[in-house]
Every structure is written in structure tokens, then in C-alpha cells.
Design a protein that fits this description.
Layout: E1 8-13, E2 26-31, H1 37-44, E3 63-68, E4 88-92, H2 103-119, E5 123-131, H3 138-147, E6 154-159, H4 166-181, E7 193-197, H5 206-216
Parallel strand pairs: 2-4, 2-5, 5-6, 6-7
Antiparallel strand pairs: 1-3, 3-4
């Protein structure tokens, strides 16, 4: 089993002042509403309802934290989380892309999200969720451009890959790599961006995504755990 299977809800944050003071590595998940972010998180963590998709897309303006470690996950869901034993955090950022979100909420979302991804020292990397059929929307590009100056890695999941045939999948992946390689720093060095195809329905790319996330969380050496740890 993957260490990601240990994920459990930790806290919800709606203001920067409420960000947890834990010092463990964090990986943030971002994506346009309806790109399949919640579904991807649930499949990666082998849980059906860990992350929730809002019934009104674009209305959830909170940052949700899920802890890895610090609890006996599985049979003992209600046992307290031991904060000092948490090894990493998965951070579910608000979905974006819906015009009906009130203007004031958009301003709050931009401030909360922008400040978090640009200044959060514990943030080790970003997983950017994009629909393989419609990647790199204006807001996806904005997210990349917000995050790129940090110099931290971005791993893109092109979700719903099961909707594409083999040629379309190949083209989507090639084009995504071309776009990502166009992001370079002042010295012309490409930013540490990577991309893969992913399908929650078919479980395509699950192992690749799991390995990359554990690598970014610096949990690779402990990726294999005993079945007794479930």
C-alpha cells in the first residue's frame, strides 16, 4: 500500500493566519473546477470521500489539509491525530474557473491562494490538475506563472485520459511537455515541471503519480509500509 493511503482530514483554512504551524513537507493540489481534482485525490489516497467536490462548483473557497502519518488510519478513523508524528501534508486548494463566484470571494480567493503558493515555506511542490481534453486554460497558466518564481516543482496530471484515443493521448502529452518546457528562469533554465496522463476511472498513471508525489514529499525511502499499518 502507498503511504498516501494514510491520508486523513486535518483542518480547513479560510485565512492565512489559520495555516497550520506544522513544519512537514506539503504538496498542494490545484485545478480548474470540474478538472477532476477531488476524484484524483480520492483515487490516489484509496478513499472514496476524502476530498469533496462542491455541489456548486467554484463556491468552496477554503484550503483543506490532509495529514499523512500521526494516526492509525483505516480501522481506527476516530482516534486522535498525533500532530508530532505527522510526516507530510496533502493540501487541497480551492477549485477555480467559475464566473458566477461573487467578486468579493474572488478577491479573497486570489489573496489566500496566491500568498499560500508563493510564500508557504513548507510547500514542496504543486500538483496541477488539468482536463486532458482542455489543458492550459487561462487560469491554469495563471497558476503556473504564480508558482514558477518559487523554483519549486510542478507535476501536472492530465486527467480524464480515458476520454482520449491513443493518438490523442500521445499528442496531448507531447503538447503539454512543449508548453511546460517553455517556462524558463532568467538564465534560460527550464523550471522543474513534469506532466503525465491520468485517469481515475481506468486508474491510468496511478503508480506514476503516486511515486512522484512521494518523491516530492521526501517519503520515497519509506514508500513501502507493512500491511499491518493500514
Amino acid at each position: 500500500m502507498s503511504l498516501l493511503w494514510q491520508a486523513r482530514f486535518f483542518t480547513t483554512v479560510n485565512h492565512l493566519r489559520d495555516l497550520p504551524d506544522t513544519q512537514v513537507p506539503e504538496i498542494a493540489f490545484a485545478g480548474r473546477s470540474n478538472a477532476g481534482k477531488s476524484t484524483a485525490l480520492n483515487v490516489l489516497c484509496n478513499q472514496k470521500r476524502l476530498a469533496f467536490a462542491s455541489k456548486t462548483p467554484g463556491r468552496t473557497q477554503h484550503i483543506n489539509y490532509f495529514s499523512i502519518g500521526g494516526a492509525h488510519v483505516g480501522q481506527h478513523r476516530k482516534d486522535p491525530t498525533k500532530v508530532d508524528e505527522i510526516r507530510a501534508m496533502l493540501v487541497d486548494l480551492p477549485g477555480y474557473g467559475y464566473a458566477e463566484v461573487p467578486g468579493e470571494a474572488k478577491v479573497h480567493w486570489n489573496e489566500l491562494l496566491g500568498t499560500y503558493i508563493q510564500r508557504r515555506e513548507q510547500l514542496a511542490g504543486l500538483v496541477l490538475i488539468m482536463d486532458a481534453r482542455r489543458p492550459f486554460t487561462e487560469l491554469d497558466v495563471q497558476m503556473l506563472e504564480w508558482f514558477a518564481p518559487t523554483g519549486k516543482p510542478v507535476h501536472c496530471l492530465l486527467t480524464k485520459a480515458d476520454k482520449l484515443n491513443r493518438n490523442e493521448s500521445t499528442n496531448a502529452l507531447r503538447q503539454a511537455r512543449t508548453v511546460l518546457q517553455s517556462y524558463v528562469d532568467e538564465q534560460g533554465t527550464p523550471f522543474p515541471f513534469s506532466v503525465q496522463l491520468f485517469s481515475a476511472l481506468k486508474r491510468t498513471g496511478l503508480d506514476e503519480a503516486d511515486a512522484r508525489i512521494l518523491e516530492l514529499l521526501r517519503l520515497t525511502d519509506a514508500a513501502s509500509v507493512d500491511d499491518d499499518g493500514d
